[in-house]
Amino acid sequence: MTLFDIPTAALLGQLMLGLINGAFYALLSLGLAIIFGLLKVINFAHGAQYMLGAFVALLLSRHFGIDYWAALILVPVLVGLSGCLLERFLLRPIANQNHLYSLLLTFGLALIMQNLFTNLYGSSGNAYPTPEVFRGAVNLGFMHLPLYRAWVIVAALAVCLAAWFVIEKTRLGAYLRAGTENPQLMQGFGINIPFLITLTYGFGAALAAFAGVLAAPLYSVSPTMGANLLIVVFAVVVIGGMGSIVGAVVTGLAMGLIEGLTKVIYPQAATTVIFAVMVMVLLLKPNGLFGKGA
Amino acid sequence: MSELHATPIEQLRLDNVHAFYGESHILHGIDMKVNRGELVTLLGRNGAGRSTILKSIMGMVGRRTGSIMVNGRETTRLPAFRIPRLGAGYCPEERGIFASLDVEENLLLPPTVRSGGMSLDEIYAMFPNLYERRRSQGTRLSGGEQQMLAMGRILRTGANLLLLDEITEGLAPVIVQKLAEVLVKLKERGLTIILVEQNFRFAAPLADRHYLIEHGRIAEEISAAELPGKMDLLHRQLGV
Questions:
Q1: Count of other CB atoms within 10 angstroms of residue B188
Q2: Pairwise CA distance, residues B134 & B104, whole Å
Q3: Which of A113, A114, B116, B208 is most open to solvent, judged by the fewest CB atoms within 10 Å of its CB?
Q4: Is A191 close to B92, i.e. CB distance below 8 A?
């Protein structure tokens, strides 16, 4: 069976792979959007925090025998805590400066981390074993979907949904939304905004690390894995609209699918299609598809 | 003031308060004292520094010096988020309704700072419009409803010192009347209220005392009893 001369199986297969990439885009752009919303910091360290997630999982497994499932919980906590420290001691002192300072600071930190890991572990990738239960594949009719990839989609979507629930439906989320709009008035109600900011940055870093652990068995764990991904994720955030939570997730998944679709129709454009979409969105709707205005 | 407080309890005291926004020196040595249960207004022209007095109390100005005691605690060295926990509730001039929250979320947003606040039901009973529109986006409400929301929001927290900035500004007379009734009820509950008000006819019958603010200083303190004799002065100073 074919559709526009494209075998349906190939199309569905690429869409499925696109959805997996999209799940990572969604997780990472969600963290970026939350951080930008409250802190107005464009977190260039996000890719490095994703890489850190994968590397810490790898090192914990190598040196302490800590398995995938424990790492999935432990690593985001550790990287999240390091994010809290980073915010408290490096970002807070420059919080009142031009936003370029925090951008440059996080960019510099990302370079330091990337090169530190390159020095210590080399630039070639390291394999992380796929957890036992996910070895094997399921036949979907149009493709053999490795079980681990199916798990990645489920886990990423579950975390995005949980984050959405916390932000939209809980008291803490209301503080976050209101703090994003008017932090000074929130202090006037007795909300400890500096503490909320530290927690939010830590949470964003933890999301990146979670994505990193998810990615570890899928892609090779290398010091530059985050830098390569981050550029695409920034394009996703621009398309979705800076600071929009739902926008980040929906756009992340959609861009993964568009990428997959392009791989079938015109493979040469697959790596650039997201940037073409970004250019179009910037021309037609500069605040992004889900943006609320400048 | 009610007979219960035979000895007045000092709720708020400002001593030689100066406030600055960057290089601008806005308040030039404010001294004032407000007792528990009093309703005091800050009168004056736009730009006289009345809103800045409220913001100074809340720690929302760039820098402040002197002494500001809220419920007996010195606050000039406290971070801003600690001051509401001493019992101060602030209703800003721009109302500060959050667009990303619905009406009920806006109402439930400020954390409880002390016991004795009003329940959600009591607030809805006081402002029935808010109940009808509790699922609407906060900023979709009319100006009057937004004002009621901004007031109701701080009544839930148990704050016993209310700082209300221009709550009648731009509102229809029937809503202004409603707000006057609400203030009377709040006063009966023993709350202390500081009102920055342009609408003198609204403020005069409610207040125990008035401070006339000019150029960041207190030009005159007028008690309710002295008011009739000072009308000429006020008309001249306020242009009302």
A1: 10
A2: 5
A3: B116
A4: no
CB B102 within 8 A of CB B134: yes
Q: Does A100 touch chain B (CB under 8 A)?
A: no
Instruction: Say whether residue A181 is in contact with chain B using an 8 A CB cutoff.
Output: yes
pTM of the model: 0.87
Residue of A nearest to B82 (CA): A190
| A73: Cβ contacts below 8 Å, ≥ 6 apart | none
pLDDT tens sequence across A78-112: 999 999 999 999 999 998 889 899 999 999 999 99
| For chain B, counts of helices (H) and of strands (E) | 8, 10
Q: One-letter amino acid identity for A203?
A: F
Give the Å distances, CA to CA, from B78 to A181, B36, B163: 23, 22, 18
Residue ranges per domain, chain A? 2-284
Question: Using CA of residue B134, residue B137, residue B138, residue B142, what is the dihedral sign?
Answer: negative
Q: Which residues of A touch B92 (CB under 8 A)?
A: 185, 188
Going from the C-alpha of B151 to that of each of A253, B101, B145, B163, the distances in angstroms are 42, 16, 10, 10
If phi > 0 it is left, if psi is from -120 to 50 it is alpha, else beta; for residue A15 that is alpha
pLDDT digits (tens, 9 = 90+) for A152-183: 999 999 999 999 899 888 999 999 999 989 99
Cα–Cα dist A274/A280, whole Å: 10
Domains located in chain B, CATH noted: 10-238 (3.40.50.300)
Ordered alpha helix ranges (H), A87-123: 99-121
